Amino acid sequence: MVEKLPEKFKKPALLTDAEFHYCPGCTHGVAHRLVAEVLEELGMADKSILIGPIGCAVFIYKYFNLDCQAAAHGRAPAAATAVKRLLPDKLVFTYQGDGDLASIGLAEIMHAAARGENITTIFINNGIYGMTGGQMAPTTLVGQKTTTSVKGREAQRNGYPLDMSAVISNIAGAAYVARASLHDVKHVLTAKKYIRTAFEHQLAGRGFSMVECLSACPTNWGLNPVDSLAWLADRMVPAFPLGVMKGGDNA
Questions:
Q1: In what order do the strands lie in the sheet with 67-70?
Q2: Which of 50, 70, 175, 241 is deepest in the core (most CB within 10 A)?
Q3: CA end-to-end span of the chain, whole Å?
Q4: What is the rounded CA–CA span in Å between residue 192 and residue 202?
Q5: Distance between CA 228 and CA 101 in Å, rounded?
Q6: Contact 137/129 with Cβ under 8 angstroms?
């Protein structure tokens, strides 16, 4: 008879039993788990509202046992603003990719920060348009190949990647801005710490908060899951330096 081992690791109750639709090696699932764990630890499981994006995470409402609101492409910060102003006692957060946030939604995220809206954004940056087939995104690195930059992004032709955390950290209404990476356990734990701190800033009423998570996209990068994590560490982290850019821990 096989002895049943004690359970050491389990799924957060805030995540449903639905299977993620993400590609193998995609780190969206890691980010989902971190958000769920933090909300449970903060005791906000039944007091939080998620505003979902258009993009790879468009089906995010299937994965969280939370009240969720879908928003048009790039408009999640505007929707979150309305929800938070109507329900100020709720923890309201958006979950957005780089195409959603840094391209079509650029005005929404910047003006939400400028107004000091007391909401939080979880920003997933994989440097490419994932859902629509791997086109160049605002965050695509110089030299990075995509379906619309087949020889690599050229700065003189296509411009430079947007460093959204640096931009947002310079807006007066932003209370807390941090960037983490999801390429290994150490950095995943740091990402969780940043997400918790961002939510705590919102709960304290300090204003807009954002955590950027550098994320892997093996399918559109043309790499296997293991190599994509190495590429994330070797290429994306130097281009988008990690750390707290504004606010400090519980400042």
A1: 67-70, 48-52, 91-97, 120-125, 208-214, 174-181, 243-246
A2: 50
A3: 55
A4: 16
A5: 22
A6: yes
Which residue blocks in the chain are alpha helix, DSSP H? 28-41, 76-86, 98-99, 106-114, 155-158, 164-169, 185-203, 218-221, 225-231, 237-239
Which amino acid, one-letter code, is at 213? C
d(CA 125, CA 26): 12
Q: Is residue 214 a contact partner of residue 182, using CB atoms and an 8 Å limit?
A: yes
Residues 195, 160: Cα–Cα separation, whole Å = 27
Helix, strand, coil % over all residues of the chain, rounded to 5: 35, 20, 45
- Average pLDDT, 10 consecutive residues per value, the chain (251 residues): 73 94 96 98 96 94 95 96 98 96 96 98 96 92 95 95 98 98 98 98 98 97 96 97 85 41
pLDDT attached to residue 167: 97
pLDDT value, residue 249: 53
Q: How many residues are there in the chain?
A: 251
pLDDT for residue 248:
76
